[in-house]
Design a protein that fits this description.
Strands 1, 4, 5, 6, 7 and 8 form a six-stranded mixed sheet that branches. The chain has a five-stranded antiparallel sheet with strand order 9-10-11-12-13. A two-stranded antiparallel ribbon has the order 2-3. The chain contains 19 helices and 13 strands. It is flat and about 100 Å long. It has about 500 residues and is an alpha+beta fold. β5 and β6 form a beta hairpin. This is IS1182 family transposase.
Length: about 500
Amino acid sequence: MGGKVVFKAYDPDQLTFLPYKLEELVPAGHPVRIVKQVVDAVDVKPLNRKYKGGGASSFHPRLMLKLLVYGYLTNTYSSRKLEDQAAQNVHFMWLLGMKKPDHNTINRFRSEKLSGVLKQIFSQIVLLLQQEGIVSLKEAVFTDGTKIESVANKYTFVWGKSIKNSKEKMKAQLDELRGYAQSIAAEELKDTAPLEYSEINPEKVKETISKINAALEDKEDVAGKVKQKLNYAKKHWPENLAKYDEQEKLLAGRNSMSKTDPDATFMRMKEDHMLNGQLKPAYNLQISTQEQFILNYTLHQTPTDYQTLPSHIEQYESLYKEQPKAIVADAGYGSDENYGVLQQKGIEAYIKYNTFDKEQKEGIKAFSNDSLHYNEADNYLTCPMGQRMHHVGDGQRITSSGFLQLISRYQAQNCEGCPMRGVCHQNPGNRIVEINHSLRKHKQAATERLNTEQGIKYRKRRPADVEPVFAQLKHNHGFRRFLLKGMSKTEVEIGLLSIAHNLRKWKA
């Protein structure tokens, strides 16, 4: 037989002789102590300036910042859950000195007070990391992007192309009505010219409809369908155009937006659980890391990574008044514009272009434009059969980011009867190719850099430095969707997430 079972004494109603000190309940080296230590060390004057004098007293911005940073560090993102933690969790209670902000106060501070100033706090923390020798702002950084879904309703979309089509359709119908009216009331409409596409606005359309109505007013043989369409146009078209104009202002050149979060753009997400390529309202997050610490973050409305790099670098320089020695990134950033921007700034670009990996494995594709030898001194190409392709002109091309590219055209002299014709090109006449010499030089330089000993080290290190940070944020810490709407508020969320990530890793 076993011995007598003995239980430890347990009496939840028993009073202690002296009350517990919260200080004794927070172990040394606990992450909450790191948050307190670091937030106490930063200058919160930019935050203080967000407060107006008078009225009731406010919770100190340093206290509120600690609450949010520690909340994001412990995966507590909701303002209501943060309110609960402040009242129930020993670590939060110790950090806040038993103060208990409610969820409205927390949300206002996050949405309003931190907007526009959190990056200054973030950069101070990165500078503290530099002071401790953990990171260097002058060394290479590793840059990558990921899409994070907006809190917006995924079915409330507005498409820029759809607005354009609606306006074109409206113009065509208006021209048709005007043409019909002129056929039976030419004298009355002799001064009414067709509207240009640029004139399809509420005022002009309203004025044109009124003129057509006035011209047909006393005509007895007007078709009923025409009267019906004119009445519909008078009632709805100016109002619809005003709505389209407002939407186009919010789109600001983008192809799409969400009605419930106009700053969000519809993007194709990697997390495609339905496997149907569905577009969702989202933001494009760009980060630059070193030793898996986030040194810079920017949020963008464009789904393509290459368009984000110039402004991402500008912010790095603005935050730290210096620039990194090199930027290492994947092929999504390899564009003529980006190579040129980095070259101009004296930053080494260890950035692949879209065909780099394939060329490393298989070589440059035979008969492609890149395979043609270029004689720079005499400005001609040599075709695969060794004949000269003479320069026949230059042109310009504007990319989707507004960057101007210079394109040179070259033409072969005698393709007829060439034994290589079938594999070289299929077009009638002599082969014509277009070459962007700037991009050609940048690609050659990139290939040389990426294949140096340093370039190979950077290429191996990149996926191990920046990609695990996204895995930490999205998978380990469950941040896959924003809680707030609008660019300024979502930037605050990313800022808090980045600060929390750096502090979590700093003392890990």
